[in-house]
Design brief:
Orc1-like AAA ATPase domain-containing protein, Rossmann fold, nucleotide-binding, 11 helices, alpha/beta, elongated, P-loop_NTPase
Length: 236
């Protein structure tokens, strides 16, 4: 269950139900971008291709594109020869030719369209701010050119990173108090209400913090929080 994300889930549902389209989910670290992509993966009645940007591979050309397309590279033969050769070269599967970015973008689009002939396709790209530049260019090139093909692309990136001009964006904000309290209650039902209230205040509406803080809280820390509560001080 995603607490306080009904509007965002509705936006993802709309994307998945549309003939085709793309969406960039933005927000700070821990705000729930990956959880929203997990929701999309679970709800999609489609072939799901997924990749996570890896910071240590951000300088390796086409590294992320290779991870994303590796399960479907057996379909390369359906592409025009020039595009197929460019994509093979970019992914290190062909001759030592340098991958032409335009042709690689066309080939990426063509491969997704080819896959969609057998059924809808959903591409999920997490931590897009860490994609290598060549992979980002190819995926954005394809995402901007989706028309009536049953292909959807959902990117998740941190605030102010991963420029994606021309694509709609969905910003994730902090959870409100009610949603934050519900999440903490689910994660830490054994903690006293006053302690859960303190965790909600400390987390500032960040879902990851709301999940991790209860795990970090020791039994001694919980007792200490109870001792500092107003009711505990009045009882002394």
């Amino acid at each position: 269950m995603l607490y306080g994300r009904q509007a965002e889930q509705a936006a993802v549902d709309e994307l998945l139900q549309a003939p085709s389209g793309a969406l960039v989910v933005r927000g700070e670290a821990g705000i729930g971008k990956s959880a929203l992509l997990d929701y999309a993966a679970a709800k999609a009645h489609a072939r799901v291709l997924r990749v996570n940007g890896v910071e240590s591979e951000a300088d390796l050309p086409f590294a992320a594109l290779h991870l994303l397309l590796r399960p479907v590279l057996d379909h390369l033969g359906a592409l025009p020869q020039q595009q197929a050769e460019a994509l093979r070269g970019a992914l290190g599967l062909g001759g030592p030719t340098r991958g032409d970015r335009f042709l690689v973008g066309l080939a990426t689009l063509g491969l997704l369209v080819e896959l969609s002939a057998a059924g809808p396709v959903v591409c999920l790209v997490d931590d897009a701010q860490w994609l290598d530049g060549e992979s980002a260019d190819a995926l954005l090139f394809a995402a901007r050119r989706l028309h009536d093909e049953p292909v959807a692309a959902l990117f998740a990136a941190r605030d102010g990173e991963f420029p994606a001009r021309g694509l709609p964006e969905l910003w994730l904000r902090e959870l409100d108090a009610e949603a934050a309290s519900g999440l903490v209650a689910e994660q830490a039902a054994n903690l006293p209400p006053v302690v859960r209230d303190q965790l909600v205040a400390e987390a500032g509406g960040n879902p990851l913090a709301l999940v991790e803080l209860p795990r970090m809280l020791t039994a001694e820390g919980a007792r200490s929080c109870r001792c500092r509560s107003p009711s505990a001080r009045r009882s002394r």
